């Protein structure tokens, strides 16, 4: 038998609760413990409530996550400018300590050997 999904389990608990409230008016006994209708209804209601609570929490999480992602996309140009500003105006030590940014990699003219290596790699990629 295939494993039931969370939605299927929640629907099963809801169905059991509805059926219990509608049809079962006697005291059933399962094993050694005679459960009352009220005990079963209370237990099933707690299960249904737990599933509903987690569904609401998941929906709220997804909404908050979408909101955060949208905000990050909108603020990306500003954050990029701030990082650039710190590299221009602050010393390496300040950037590392205050902003937790790594030091810039030195830029400048490449050596002849580095340029030849780049050309060989490009040729390999095109032919391969």
Q: Can you walk me through this structure?
A:
This protein is mainly α. 74% of the residues lie in helices and 3% in strands. The protein is built from four helices and two strands. The protein has helices at residues 6-23, 37-89, 92-99, 112-127; strands at 29-30, 33-34. Strands 1-2 form a two-stranded antiparallel sheet. β1 and β2 form a beta hairpin. α1 runs antiparallel to α2. The longest helix has 53 residues, at 37-89. The chain is elongated, with a radius of gyration of 32 Å. The two termini are 49 Å apart.
Strand and helix map with partners:
Layout: H1 6-23, E1 29-30, E2 33-34, H2 37-89, H3 92-99, H4 112-127
Antiparallel strand pairs: 1-2
Measured as a percent range, the helix fraction is over 70%
Total of DSSP H or I helical runs spanning 4+ residues: 4
Beta-strand proportion:
under 5%
Order of helices and strands: HEEHHH
Tell me the distance between the termini.
49 Å
Strand order across the largest sheet: 1-2
Quick rundown:
The protein is mostly helical. Helix content is 74%, strand content 3%.
Salient structural properties:
mainly alpha; two-stranded antiparallel ribbon; 2 strands; single chain; 3% strand; 74% helix; 128 residues
């Amino acid at each position: 038998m295939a494993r039931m999904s969370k939605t299927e389990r929640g629907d099963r608990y809801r169905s059991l609760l509805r059926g219990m409230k509608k049809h079962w008016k006697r005291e059933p006994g399962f094993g050694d413990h005679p459960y009352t209708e009220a005990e079963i209804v209370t237990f099933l209601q707690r299960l249904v409530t737990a599933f509903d609570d987690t569904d609401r929490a998941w929906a709220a999480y997804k909404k908050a996550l979408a909101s955060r992602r949208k905000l990050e996309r909108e603020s990306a140009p500003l954050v990029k400018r701030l990082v650039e500003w710190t590299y221009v105006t602050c010393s390496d030590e300040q950037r590392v300590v205050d902003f937790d940014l790594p030091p810039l990699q030195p830029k400048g003219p490449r050596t002849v050997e580095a340029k030849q290596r780049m050309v060989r790699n490009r040729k390999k990629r095109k032919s391969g």
